[in-house]
Structures are given as C-alpha cells and as structure tokens.
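Researcher: Structure prediction, please.
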Amino acid sequence: MRPPILFPLYAPIGSLKGVGERIAPLLEKLAGPIVRDVLFLKPHSLIRRRKTTVVEALEGEVETLLIEIDGYIKPRGPQQPWRIKAFDGTGTVDLIFFGAYAGQLEAKHPVGAKRWVSGKVERYGLTLQMSHPDYMVLPEKVDDIPDVETVYPATAGLPARTVRKFVQESLSRAPDLPEWLDPAWKAREALPGWKEALVSLHTPQFEHDLTEQTPQLRRLAYDELLAHQLAMAQRKVAQRRSPSAKIPASTLADQVEAALPFRLTGAQVRALSEVRGDLQSGERMSRLLQGDVGSGKTVVAMLAMADVAASGGQSAMMAPTEILARQHFETLASPLAAQGVKAVLLTGRDKGAARVEKLAALAAGTVQVAVGTHALFQNDVVFHALRLAVVDEQHRFGVAERQRLQAKGEAVHLLAMSATPIPRTLELTLYGDLDVSRIDEKPPGRTPVVTRAVPMTRVGEVESRLRQVVQEGAQAFWICPLVSDSELVDLKAAETRAAELRTQIGSGVGLVHGKMSGPEKDAVMADFADGKIQILVATTVVEVGVNVPNATIMVIEQAERFGLAQLHQLRGRVGRGRRESACILLYDPPLSETAQKRLDILRRTDDGFKIAETDLELRGGGDSLGLKQSGFPAYVFANPIAHRDLILTAGDDARLILARDPELTSPRGQALRVLQEVFDWRPGTVLKDAG
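Model: Predicted structure follows.
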C-alpha cells in the first residue's frame, strides 16, 4: 500500500487550484494525471527581468518599466494593433496589442494611470515598443513580476506562464520525505535533500542552474536511478530464488561442438561456460548474451539447447521476423539432427495438417527444439517440458511477450541475445536484472570489410563499381536515408534511386520500405537471400542478423544522417562470405566535425563495443544509439549519458542495500520503499518502459 505521506503527490491534477474540466486534459497531456507529474516538469529556460528606465532600456532584452499612460491610438483596420503611448520621465515607449480584446484595455488602464510593465523591448523606426507585455500591473503589485522567471513546456491552450503557476502550487504540496541516501556519500557529493533539490530545480537564478550537472539535478537523477536499480536488483534476487531444473553439461553438446567445421573462439567458450554455470545452479537463469553481428551467439545458444535436450527438456528460440527465424533454424537444425536432436520451425505461415503435426510433436516431446516467431507463444502451442527460452534481438519484444513464452513451462531459463552493442557504462540501465555475457571476438575466417567515405558527387563511380560486382556474380545493399519526417517522401526518394539503379545496372534491383507489410518485406528479403535479386535498396534498416554471404558491398547514402552504431550494424550485413567486401559511406560535403569523427572511427575499427563507446563520447547528451528504440526507460530526471557515473554508483548501492537489508525493513530500507513509490519503480514495474 502507498504510504500516506505520498497522498498529496498522488492526488489527481484536478485538485490543483485553477485546473478545471477544460484545463485538466491539457495539463495531463503535458505532464501526467497526478500532482507528482506536474511537480516533475523540468523548466527548459528562464527569463531575467531587469527594472530600468526607458532611456536605459536595451533593445532585444526583457525589461521592467514603471510608466504613465499618455493615450491610446486605435487601429485603423482589423489587421492593425492598438497602441498605448506611455512615458516614464526619461523617454517614451509604445505598448502594442493585437486582437479585439485590446479595446478593453482603456477601462483597465486609463490615461494618467501608472503601471509596471515587463516584456521584450524592440525598436520600430525611431520608437521603442513592447508588444503584448508579459505583465502590466498596479504600482503596489510590482512584486507580482518576478526578477527571474522559469519557462516550462507549453501546449495549445496552456501557456508556459500558466504551467508555471501549477508547478509552483504542486511544489507547495511536496512533503518532506525521510532521507534514503547514504549520509557519507551524500555529503561527499555535496547533494541537497530531496525537497531542497526540487525547490532549486524550480527556482533557477542563472542558465547554469538548468544544466544536468547541477547538484539539484544530480540528486534527483540519482534518486530516480537508485529506485530503478533497486527494483531490478530485487527482481534479480527473486528470479534466483525461483528453483529451476538443474541442467548439466552434456556429452551430446560436446559431440555437436566436435562436429562443427570450426572451433569456438575464446569468447564463445567463456560465454558458454557462464550459461552452463547458470543452467547447473538450480536457480532460474536470466542472462543476456551480447555479441557483435556474426560473433557466434547462435552457436552458443545451440550448445545450451543440446545440454537441455540431453537432460530430457525442450528449448524454444524466438526471433522477431520470419526470415530471421528461418535463418536460425537453418543454422541449428542440421548440427542438432546429426546427433539425434529434432528441431521444428514454427511461424505464422504454418497452417493446416503441417501445423497440427508440429504442435503434436512439441506436446509429445518427440521434438526437442522449436524455432519461430511470435507464433511460439500462441495459446495452442503446448510444450512437453520447456526448460530454456532463447529470445533473439530481445529488445524487439515486449516484456509480456517474453513472459508468455516462458510461461509455456515451469521456471523456464531465459537466454536473451542482442547484436546491438551497448556501452558497458549503460548496461546496468537496460540489463540490471540480467547477468550479461559478452562475445567480443570475431570467429576466424570472417573477411574484413574495407570501409571508405566517398562524397555524393562521385555516386556515378559507385554505380559503375556496382555494375562490375553484379556482373561477377556478387550482390549489394543500397541503403537510403531518412530524408524527412514523411515516409512518403522517403519512399519516393528510394523509389527514384531504385529506378536509377535499374537503368544503370539492370532489372535485378529490389526495394524494401516502411510501407510494406511484414510478409512483403520477408518475401523480398528471401528473394535477395536466394540470389534472385542482385541489389537490394532499402529505406529502413535492413533486418539485424540477415545473412546473405554473397552480398559484398554495402552502400549507405548520406551516411552522415545515420548514427554511428546504426552504421556499424548496417556494415555488418556484408563480409559474411569468403569474398573481399566493402562498405561505401556516401556523404554530402561539407561534413561537420562530429560527422567527420563518426566516419573516421568506422574506417579504423569494426569492434562494435568500441564503436558504441565512441558514439557515446561524440554525442554526449541526447538520444545516443537510439536509446529509446533500444528499450531504455523513459526517465524523468536521469540522462543515461550525462549521468552514467551515477548509474554505476546506483547499481553498486542497490546491491549493497539488498545484501544488508533484503526485505528493506531498516529505517533506510523504509525510506527506500517511499523512494520506489515516488518514482513508480517497484520489482513488478521494473521493465515498464523497456518493452
């Protein structure tokens, strides 16, 4: 139950003064449904107001003047403004008002009256003027005009100044909460208390006070990160308490490995050892297997599946698209079948008798491995003894989807896989409730991809090179950029490029774009994989993991528009066969300094983890690596990049807290329970935004 001390924060926004039926939906859209959400709105800028005189007023600045109204000049037409002539003893200033309501001004502010006015001063010809002053108040009401005014997000029908009023009222309702930070660490970091931090957040005096490294924002960011890390640590503890079948390493898996045409890399051996340690522990495994494109994650998963089969259990591998599921099946089925382990492929295409036969085999346990798409967790899919769920490109699935697959058995082990390199400094934010294994070596025999940056002015030379490659029997990708916010505009640009390539090279040019359905995309990708298409033009990122060994050239048009990690992912589509491969980065000169560094690092290394760290450094703030698309939580105060030092500290703190006080019953533990309620981060909501 939520502690009573938080009731004021969880009151509906309609309880705020002035928030009626008309305003409530606007404020909810901007902030959220409860008072806490308004309290957590961050100001994005501030206005400094200087009291001065007309003669000393600076053009372009916000000034506050004590004026006397000399007269009114009515507009000559509906498009003309009302002008109030005013004087302060040192000079004259015109107050400008557009709109029909301006006619009511004379009654409120008669000629001869004195008023404090505040707004931006501009010059019109020889006259100083102030259009629609922000404030126009009686002399005794001068304190109503703040010297420093915070500016909040606004929306249609709800101006920033009105939002500011609601934020100030929500701040007055913020309770004094018990301290949950370690006192020594709080003192060392010179962090304010929770409520003090909120007061400072909403009363900045200088622009610097709005930056992410101020004590108040670091305090609030740490609170949010600690609440999240604590929830993930609790979830991890709960998972480990859940007993699961002990699955020992097997001679069957050794036989599968011995029959492979290659030897495992040291990183694969290490990852497999970590996975086996979990499977043998008797506790339910929740592990992420991170590895660059082509690093051999699927082979590690296959050997774990062999161990499960040897112990009498079943495994399921789920991929986000049919083409990836089919590719995994082709990788797994033959090596497993050679040792007597049967596998089936289950996708949305399976119908009728064929589907019934596969489902019967899974239910009877005569098939030990199922590979498929979302079809795996449909209601009619029943396993005889599901022990291991492998989820490829796990961030492409929602939490509920992963849980539905695991619910097909009892205490099912989870092995998630991802080819999206996440910097070590950010791992905790995404994977704090998972153990992480990294495969950071390339298998021997992978052909290095030569990477070159070429200006768009030489696109004709690139097309000529493509024609030659196609004539030699190879294939190529051509990636078109997102040139606007309109999918139709992007599609038109890609269609134009595809038509030009057909003219230059021939008819074997396919096109994949965002307007196509999943099956349509899969069909074109399958034709490309089968060699029926020589050049694939794509407006969307080509599916991660799609394996076309015959593709030797990746052309990325306007590469400066893509993120560094995204460029690396695209480059990983080629260099999978024995032929020499190349990645051509076409760019529009001149390049910015950041874009130049981005293309340079791609030319120098193909280490995805190093590239991800560099991307982090180059971008600093903002949505590096497409964090939201990668499943990152929608934090309010914490920036996973600017506050990555706090992430590590919060992760350590959370583990230490649970080691000392697993049930959070101590005074600090009770305070931490309040913290988790403040941010809605509890073990049950740990992945609320990461699906």
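Model: The longest strand covers residues 62-73.
Researcher: Thanks, that helps.
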